[in-house]
Amino acid sequence: MTGEEAKRTIDELIDKIERYNYLYYQESKSEISDYDFDQLMKKLEKLEEEFPHFKQPYSPTQRVGGAITKSFDTVEHKYPMLSLGNTYSKEELVDFDKRVQKGLDSNDYEYICELKFDGVALSITYNKGVLERGVTRGDGLRGDDVTNNVKTIRSLPLKLRDPSQLPGQFEVRGEVYMPLEVFNAINSERASKGETPLANPRNTASGTLKMQDSGIVASRKLDCFLYAFLSDEDTVKTHEEGLKRLSKAGFNVSPTYRKCKNIDQVLEYINEWEEKRKALPLDTDGIVIKVNSVAQQQRLGYTAKNPRWAISYKYKAENTSTRLNGITYQVGRTGAITPVAELEPVFLAGTTVKRASLHNANEMERLDLHIGDFVFIEKGGEIIPKVTGVDRDKRQPQASKVSFIERCPECNTPLERKEGEAVHYCPNAEGCPPQIKGKIEHFIQRNAMDINSIGERTINLLYEHDLVRNIADLYDLSFEDIIELEGFRDQSTKNLLDGIEESKNRSFAHVLFALGIRYVGKTVAEKLAGHFGNIDRLSDAGFDDLINVPEIGDRIAESVTQFFSDKNNIEIIQKLKQKGLQFEQSKSQIVKSDALEGKSFVISGVFERHSRDELKKLIKEHGGKILSSVSGNLDYLVAGDKMGPSKLDKARKLNVSIISETDFEAMISE
Ligand code: IVH
């Protein structure tokens, strides 16, 4: 074969193989048997060996790897790789939309929604139709040159089939990921060899991209979705046009993107993909919303870190699994013992989770926890994670079962558990430190006596110096007692005492709640205060009197009678009475009905028959709650004249009932 013939054959082979590659990896079609494909590859390899000067940098033989990168060069990005602002809340997306609208001073804009692929960001430059370089994001300004490894990604063109479609120089950006199937196969092989499993596909993709041996990289079958086209030669007018051009030129663009004409359509997209995304062959952790018009993107510009024209919405990670390192036990103010799972830290829905409540002994029994178990955790209501189950497959055979403690971890008193109750209690109410401090903490909190001059640190100091052993002791504190304490000066001492003095103005309902009677929350305290009017009538009430109060059940009634049968509690109440706290309902606090029980309201605008304050008072008197702003938790927006359109809009978007003054009056007259 002459040199010329060899060159021509090499070029033909490259084109052929890359076409089959494209059909297979992008269009899921195979027009050639595996055997024949391998034959073509072998033929190419052989010719490249014979005529090394004709070996092309874009040859598909590069895809099987072999090149070793000792250390990765650091390369500056031509266009910085910014990250996106993100949110977990749909309300914040609505706010984002408002900022876009305001920034553009127009309603005339569209969004492109895409899935947020959970992998590693990569920038790839092309020169004259040939893949030149692949660089990781790094710090956004400089990244690592991982070209040899990037070339193993089979869906990424090494040479464009029709270079005339795109400018001579351009850059594409996308997310390199490890398909779940590949990840799972690696892990089952590791398991069969007794090796520890890899944590997740994202970290594995990231680690793989930085391996020195591109042969191993090739075997790990990374893939890549492209989501951005950048060039200064001829730019596109819209983001969508960029995606379409990339796709036409043979790049792997996920077909899951959608053009949305307004934020409602964006929210629909989000809802639609929340479940559907789980069937995709890769992990996704949210969606990305981008203003479509490039001119509008430029007008909106950037903050120091993020574009103002794009944002990502993250789905709440429903659950994850991690190792149970141990169990600790917390003693609450009522003596209730809460078992807490101490976990191997794991990232879940925006935070690192180290601990999760196990609730009580029954729950521990249900979970059948063993030391060293892998547990599934979930973020219910976002803040406090809970353990939902155990991964039994991962249990070590000799692992011992966890059993509930028998003595209080704080004061060593044997624990008690009433028949039929799930919770264990430490009965040492007067002597167990966390119970004493917990009762005081509860007493001073905002919803109770609202003594904000005292915090947790001060409570610890007061306890350590033997100055308080119960809530009534707070009212005996003197200037001399406090000034002695570490960190207190004249003014801070005076503030602390003023705060205590001022708390004597709190209403009976507040005091009742502050006493910390088990199961008597704020709303129940308001009910009881409204119904009985003063502490003497309440403490004289028997079980039957109590359960006759609307919405007071057996459990509360029993707890209240038990509280008042304890002479320690009576003594404390006597003392608090002497100190001048309110133990009687004043006329204005009377509860008229529970027609609005459990319902929340926002009042906005001007009304015909009531002032806003009158409406608020009525809501409280009928058992309703007042919120300060419209949110997804709100039940009713009471809308008057001249209210702002933004509140109305938001209420409509969030499906909040919007009612008039007349509707409201009807609700409380029923
Ligand atoms: S656009 C300036 N689109 O999310 C906008 N990013 O913090 C640049 N990602 O680093 C990003 N899927 O690794 C964009 N469809 C998508 C994406 C996506 C995943 C990643 C990317 C980026 C991070 C944003």
How do the strands and helices of this protein lay out in sequence?
Elements: H1 3-26, H2 34-50, E1 74-76, E2 86-87, H3 90-104, E3 111-117, E4 120-127, E5 130-136, E6 142-144, H4 147-150, E7 169-177, H5 180-192, H6 201-209, H7 214-219, E8 223-230, H8 239-248, E9 258-260, H9 263-276, E10 284-291, H10 294-300, E11 310-314, E12 319-331, E13 337-348, E14 351-357, H11 361-367, E15 374-379, E16 385-390, H12 433-444, H13 456-464, H14 479-483, H15 490-502, H16 508-514, H17 522-532, H18 535-540, H19 543-547, H20 554-564, H21 567-579, E17 600-604, H22 612-621, E18 625-626, E19 636-639, H23 645-653, E20 657-659, H24 661-669
Parallel strand pairs: 2-11, 17-18, 17-19, 19-20
Antiparallel strand pairs: 1-6, 3-9, 3-10, 4-5, 4-7, 7-8, 10-11, 12-13, 12-15, 13-14, 15-16
Bound molecules: 2-(butylsulfanyl)adenosine (IVH).
Residues 82-84, 114, 116-117, 121, 137, 175, 227, 288, 307, 310, 312 line the site of 2-(butylsulfanyl)adenosine.
Polypeptide structure, described:
The chain is of the alpha+beta class. The chain is built from 24 helices and 20 strands. The strands form five sheets. It has a five-stranded mixed beta sheet. It has a five-stranded antiparallel beta sheet with strand order 14-13-12-15-16, covered by helices on one side. It has a four-stranded antiparallel beta sheet with strand order 5-4-7-8. The N and C termini lie far apart (99 Å). 30% of the residues are buried. The mean pLDDT is 90.
